[in-house]
Design goal:
The structure is a single chain. By secondary structure, this protein is of the alpha/beta class. It has a single domain, classed as TIM Barrel (Alpha-Beta Barrel), CATH 3.20.20.210. The protein contains 17 helices and nine strands. It has a seven-stranded parallel β-sheet, sandwiched between helices. A two-stranded antiparallel sheet has the order 2-3. The chain is globular and about 60 Å long. The two termini are 30 Å apart. The chain binds coproporphyrinogen I. Coproporphyrinogen I binds next to β3.
Amino acid sequence: MILQNDLILRAAKGEDIERYPVWLMRQAGRILPEYRAVRSKLSGFKELVETPALAAEVTIQPVDLLGVDAAIIFSDILVVPEAMNVPYEMLEAKGPWFNHTIRSEEQAKRVETDFDVEDRLGYVMEAIKLTVKELNGRVPVIGFAGAPWTILCYMVEGHGSKTFSEARKLLYTNPTLAHQLLQDITDVTIRYLKAQVKAGAAMIQVFDSWAGILGTEQYATFSLPYLKQIADAINDVPVTLFSKGAITSIPAIAQLNCNNVGLDWNMDVAAVRAQIGDKRTLQGNLDPCALYGSHENVATETIKMLHSFGKNKRHIVNLGHGVYPDVDPEKVKTFIKTVKSYEIN
Ligand code: 1CP
């Protein structure tokens, strides 16, 4: 398939670009009335995730409606623990819920790793194939998975949390079990991401959403070695590592075998660039709340971020985290328009 718009892939590889590519984390989702219309006809979130034709439809919506330079496959990071026999439910207005938590060796017995990802997660690969076919080369499709540490957070805690103190407790009380589970998640994740690439994903992003709740030393012990295995295993397409809140670990992340390092809005682009040099592309990092401002303010804040890049072409524009569901899509369009009309040279 020849891509008409390969801007994001060129930026990821450090090749020349005529303007900065732009997409948004969580672009396929509740900000769009067209997404809510599809979703309202279904029993719930999981039905959408598990129905390839509908997942493909909502994946393509932001390409049609917002003009982003990449599509991210509509799915969730929690499909991986589910495939490992730790299933989740998505409760309306509450978020994920696991009926089984894994906090002891006894509970860990239910965790399965020896299965075919095509078998248990085939619906994701099917959705990617359909999306690639329907996009017909308009933009690349990004595949993704959660980082092992972030997946462990949900497996141990059983639901969302501000502190994930049960998960962090395990690191102190039973580090052996924590490492065993992290390795199991890593093994499955590598097979899953390779299957996504085979199905047509042209770039991979690993979301370490709960990186920021670990100290630097613990991050080096319980997350980086597993991210390293994933980054080393995915060779055919560019890889983005997004470790939200891991400010002090950014130089170590940039040492891994990745193309892109995702930055959240607390991170200073110029300071990170000074630390890591030109060998990696940076992705981010407008504060998602900036999109609540007036159109004029959105444009001003976006330009401020673009200025922080200097003249460096190794950037992919995004927010510093997922777009908030109540943001006006017109403000998102202003953000995207501002990026697209910004001259790099
Ligand atoms: O009913 C709905 O529409 C539920 C909202 C929703 C959506 C749209 C959830 C529940 N997941 C998703 C899709 C999703 N999740 C995507 C789709 C593609 C896109 O970005 O457009 C992606 C990439 C994710 C990844 C994801 N899920 C992450 C990592 C990214 C991040 O935001 O940090 C995490 C932590 C999750 C777990 C999750 N899924 C959904 C919720 C509400 C949560 C977070 C719960 C918590 O706070 O712990």
